[in-house]
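Appendix C reproduces, verbatim, an entry submitted by the partner laboratory led by Prof. M.T., so that reviewers can inspect both the input and the predicted structure.
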Amino acid sequence: MQFAPPDELTGNLFRVLGSGTEQRVAHSFEEAKFILQRHFPQKYTLLERTAQCQVKLQHKKLKHVLLSSAWFSPAMEIYSAPATPFYALYFRLYGSSEYTVHKHSFVTSPARGAFLPGLQPVRVITEPNWHVFSAKFSPEVLQKELSRLLDREVVRSLEFDPAVHFDRGAGMFVRRCLTDLFKKAGKQESCVGELALEQAEQALMTLILEGLRHNYSKFINGPEREIAPWQLRVVEEFIRESADQPLSLGDLAAVSGVSSRSLQSMFLRRRGYSPMEFVRRVRFERVRDELLHPKHNATVTSSAMQWGFSHPSRFAMDYHAKFGEKPSETLRRAMKQK
């Protein structure tokens, strides 16, 4: 899997500051601890006493998630023994750190992140020049979303498997979704609306609960399901992102990680239509959007052909059945309004 190059996030993250965004820089260990403990109340210990300490922290509070980017110059030991559930997803662009969650130890890398921790004690040993990105979630919000997914009240606290593999399974799409949320949060409010940010937050939380392993996973996905809900959503998102490319049922099955037969069956049961019908619907919406917001040389034929509709007369009939007007009428009305 291809990860975002370092400069794509570190060079642009929160460059344009908006409401809810803070940047803090510390040049001493005591100052750094004061800044960090405001948002991450943990114990911090320097492992290089003679090294100069510099810390840079950026964070932005969204509706449900606190996004952070932290850089530490010295190697550190971080210890947390939460009295209440504490949930944060961490990923990095380079380097590694050693995590111990209760009795489980693992090393993070760009391909492996950490989800911490529920109520388990956590110990982290960082390398010098440690740069980490995190998304901190409110326990109440995650519990509310879990209750919605299960259609019942959740009593016990969520406990996640702390190691997250970003190079396979649901972890690939969790990282993609998390990176997308960071990018949206770093843009000006005029470029990304509140609704788009909230939808991105919601998509990330749902994917985490459906795709990552925790003590409620078997109740969400069920032991007999051939394809999990998160896989279905990942295929739909892939279709939306790639609708302008040639797509086959085999392509979509490869994205989901299941057989084409299983994917076809799940779409029919859950959505009432096939995966390729969803491709067709997305492409119809793209054509309509182009006709509603036409460029100076736009034509019905060029828009239809661009989105894979090679039979103009059949396309026009299907368009009329779907939207209640001919595509030429949509374009004509939009041109008059310009």
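Residues 225-338 form a domain with the Arc Repressor Mutant, subunit A fold (CATH 1.10.10.60). Additional entries are available on request from the coordinating office.
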